[in-house]
Amino acid sequence: MARIKMKYRRIDKPSEIIRTLMLIPAIVVLIILIILGPNPSYPIWAIIIGAGSILSYLATMTYFCIKQKCYIQLARTYVTIFLAIACFLMIRYSK
């Protein structure tokens, strides 16, 4: 069976620092939701800030990955984010 070699491109813009800063609000919201415990009535502002942070990250990555033609990284980013959200929801609502 032949191995397929995939070469990933380095995404030039935005920098790693900017991409990390875009996800900090989502991490803060997750920490707040974990501290609140299994309470089904989360603060709406926390949900809006967390979703806004993740959506802005995905929109930025989509724009720059399409512009730089690095579709494999874009697909990997989407799969990673959606799997993380699915795992969080499964853990959160399994109780």
Structure description:
The chain is mostly helical and 95 residues long. The chain is 73% helix and 0% strand. It contains three helices and no strands. The chain has helices at residues 16-36, 44-68, 71-93. Helix 2 (44-68) runs antiparallel to helix 3. It is elongated. The protein starts with 15 loop residues before the first helix and ends with a helix.
Summarize the structure.
With 95 residues, the chain is mainly α.
Structural shape: elongated
The quaternary organization reads as single chain
Strand content: under 5%
> Roughly how much helix do the residues carry, as a percent range?
over 70%
Biggest β-sheet: count, sense, barrel? Answer: none
Mean pLDDT: 79
Specify the structural class: mainly alpha
First-last Cα distance:
44 Å
Number of strands: 0
- Whole-number radius of gyration? 16 Å
Low-confidence stretches: none
Order of helices and strands: HHH
Number of helices, counting only DSSP H or I runs of 4 residues or more: 3
